[in-house]
Amino acid sequence: MRYFCVFDFETDGVDTDVCNPVQVACAMIDPYNLNIVEGSKFCSDMRPLGINNLDTYLTPEREKTIKFHCMHQKCTKEELLDKWRNAPSTHVVWKQFCSHVNIYNKEDKQFTAPVPCGANIRNFDLPITKKLNEKYKIGKLFNYEVVDIRDLAFYWLSWDTSLTSRSMDSLRKYFGISDTNAHDAWQDVLDSTEIISRFLKLHKKLYNDIKFKNSFKEKAASVGPDV
To answer: Could you read off the pLDDT of 118-137 as tens digits, one per residue?
Structure first.
């Protein structure tokens, strides 16, 4: 039984090949009771690479993302850039983050490492994780398995036409979760944890109520040998 690590990056762009993390957060879900583990919070701002040279740093994509962050954080561009500029370096924060995650790896193997969880992490957060691990010579941080809220929404909500998007903003509205502090890494982790924990508890309940083992054998036997 492995811990579930719900994590989230905030970045200075949307292209995972060139964007820099500006904040990272995570929390663990206990594999037995499926609730958030007390004391498992990690959250830190990160200083994006190149921010000390604004002439080259402020590309059109970054300008658009900065405007997005300013809108949600209710701050000016100058205040946001100062906040990022004064944050700890990416190298320092990432090593701290990895050390924190590894506390919950029971045998220091990838098989026993926490299962990465979050919203759209297959397409966004995990590629950034891979890039940072390669850059700073970090070994495999997470388990092979992945729990992505977009997958859960696809499996369970595809037939509900009132849900027009599987983005986290749309899912917040759909589930009735407040959007206060949305797009802050720690708030996104908290909201994602609530959703993932609820689905995991649902899966556990269904597993106890529905018999899967040998169910195909039973079906074949009831129909006959010509099936």
So the answer is: 999 999 999 999 999 999 99
